[in-house]
Every structure is written in structure tokens, then in C-alpha cells.
Amino acid sequence: MKYPYLENKNILIGVSSGIAIYKAVDLVSKLRKMNLNLKVIMTKNAKNWVSDQIFSAVGNCDVYYSSFDVKGGWIPHTELSNWADLFIVAPATANIIAKISCGISNDLLTSTAIAFAKESKLIVPTMNVRMYENKALQRNLKILEADGWTIIEPEVGHLADGEIGKGRYPDNDRILEYAEYLLCKKDFLNKKVLISAGPTVEKIDPVRYITNRSSGKMGYELAREFACRGADVTLVSGPTNLTAPSLVKNFIPVESAIDMEKVMVTYSENSDIIIMSAAVGDFRIKNFSAQKLKKDDVLVLELEKNPDILKELGEKKRENQILIGFAAETQNHEEYAKKKLKEKKLDMIIVNDVSRKDIGFESDENEVIVYSYGEEYRLEKNHKRIIAALIIDYVYNKFC
Ligand code: C5P
What we know:
By secondary structure, the protein is an alpha/beta fold. It is built from 14 helices and 20 strands. It folds into two domains: about 5-185, Flavin prenyltransferase-like (Rossmann fold), CATH 3.40.50.1950; about 190-400, CoaB-like (Rossmann fold, 3-Layer(aba) Sandwich). The strands form five sheets. The chain has an eight-stranded mixed β-sheet with strand order 13-12-9-14-17-18-19-20, with helices on both faces. A six-stranded parallel β-sheet has the order 3-2-1-4-5-6, with helices on both faces. Helix 5 (about 95-100) crosses helix 8 (about 135-145). It is elongated and about 75 Å long. It binds cytidine-5'-monophosphate.
């Protein structure tokens, strides 16, 4: 995953003594691989689980735990809170949550929390389910929220003590998606964005199907970027191997083109911006077999045409709605793109050259040409997240 809004930022990780501390080591490792500026604060108890040397080695960074480690005029809690653009407390124990919510500052982590005056502060509660559900803990979380902390809810699942429930440390990518949200501009606030992604699947029988090649990565990156910039995103996705971006409010999985059509038409009514990046199958099976076909059956597949969802959305398009399509082409890009732009009543079309092996389809990178009426915008090869950000900048400048 790529996190452009974390680049060149100073990131301070506060670690308290949850057993999930080993996952915070992985968080630091991930951030180091991105070449970010890192520093870590550990509580005294956290050092009972893992050594500060681990964080220092994995993060290639300084690790602090004493408020009294004063060097000349360098006072740890005020210097660290000034230095950090982003403060992540992970894992956060019930104890550290209680202390921060009451304003207690009796060690370096809590003193830094009190001195940190920016909005970009995240806390990741991680503990046993009964501790998490405890009324005092819940009350403290509400206080933290009111004080401007962004709280990442723990996941439900197996806990370190063998119980099952809410309290698990979340995926680190989820934490970083929230971190980015706190640092990026919000130019699509209050905009409703509808995006389709991935392939569609047309069943032949209960175990077989025909589909199109599509990883869904481009559509998911567009959804991630729009959500990061404040949009209210609905992502309608055919089957992919991807995890829905954490900030996407509404994720709707679908299978066939007909399923996708129903959902897209319903949600389009309320959407300001619609992007069809799905690789919709042009045909479906006419003679679907409810029973599994036998190998020696004489097999003739009869196909019928699927609806062109994008065209239908173009017909229904209301004033001020922005409709964007994709086109996968192997030749005559400009001619085909301009034809589709007009025929499907689009505002913009994005062309992928699918004859190239180094971009498009399963690749993390893409290179596209954007066509709108009278304008052509070429985007050089780049990570799909960056391509998404540039496409969205273009949409903002042109239509918003
Ligand atoms: O006409 P063509 O299939 O090349 O157009 C591609 C665009 O149309 C894409 O945005 C794709 O999501 C959309 N499409 C659609 N319904 C189809 C086929 C394609 O909405 N049945």
C-alpha cells in the first residue's frame, strides 16, 4: 500500500504495554520501509514486554521512555510533541486511555499527549473484551473523542488470553489509512461519490463462470483517495482479492452485471460524482444450468448482451452530476475514447492501454490518458494511488 500523505511527515509512535505490542513493532517496520521520519516513546511497562532496542533497530529511530532524559535545553515531552506532525498511540491500554482522558501526565508518553496540540492524533485501544466493554473505559474513550482524538475501534476476534470478542489490535494498514485522513486536504467534503470496481462474474452453472480480467486496484485506489479527501464514498465491487478501504463508508459487493446495474442505478440518483471503473462483462449466459453440468454433456454456451451500465447512467444523468468512464483499449485510443465520451454522455473518460504488460490489470502501476471535451491529459507511469490522486485533482480543477 502507498501512503502519499505521510511522506515527509514526522511521526511519533507512543507504545503502552498491551500484549499486541509486537504488532506495533510491525507498524514501525512498515513506516521505516516508507522512509518516514520516526520516533518512538515507550512506557516503562511496555519495556517489560519488548526491549526498546527492537523499536530502535526496526525503525532505525530514537526511542524515548524517560521524562528526565534532558539534553541541554532539550526537554523530551515538549520537544517531541513539537516535532511530531502525527501522534499514534498503539497499542493503547485501558490504563493509558484513563490517564490521557483525565489529563494525568506522570510519564513521558502521557506528558507528550498533554503537550501535543495538533488535531492529528490517533489512539488504538487494544485489550481483553471485558476490559474494552467496561463502562469506565467506554466513558474515557468518549472523553478522548471529545478532546479531538481519533479512535480506531479494535477488531472482533481471538484475543491473547484465548477469549473471543472485541479488543484485537486492528490491521496496521487500517491505522495508516486513518493517519493519512488526518493529514490530507478535505476538498471533497460533503460530496457523494459512487465508484464501481473489479470484474463482474456471469455464472454458467453453480461452480463455473465467465469473467473479465480486472484486479479492481484502480477503482479501489480512487475510492481510497476520494474518501481520504473527505468524500462520502460508495464502492460497488465485483469479486476481487482486495480489502475495502477503511474510510469508504459504504461497500457493496456484487457479482453479475445485472446486480451491479441495479446498485449503480439506485445509488446514482444521490451521487455528485460517478466513476465506472469496473470491467463489466458484455455478455451473460442465456442457458444458465441450475445443476452442475457433467463433463460429457455437449456444451454450447448461449450468450446474451448485458446492459451497458455507463450508457444507462449517461441517459439518466442529472444536471451538475459528473459521470466518468474508463476504456481499456489496445489501439486507436484517442478515436475510441472520444467516441465513447460522446455516445455515453460522459464528462470525462480515462483510457488504459491494456496491450502493455508493465501497467494496468494486476499491476500496482498504471499510465493513462484522460479525455474530456477538447482536452487531453496524459499521466505518466506511476503507482495507481498517485494516478488516482492526479485524476481527482483534475476532476476538482475542472468541475468543482
Ligand atoms: O464500451 P466499453 O465497454 O469499452 O466501455 C467501458 C466503460 O463502460 C467502462 O467505464 C465500463 O465500466 C463501462 N461498462 C458498463 N457496462 C458494460 C460495459 C462497460 O458500464 N456492460
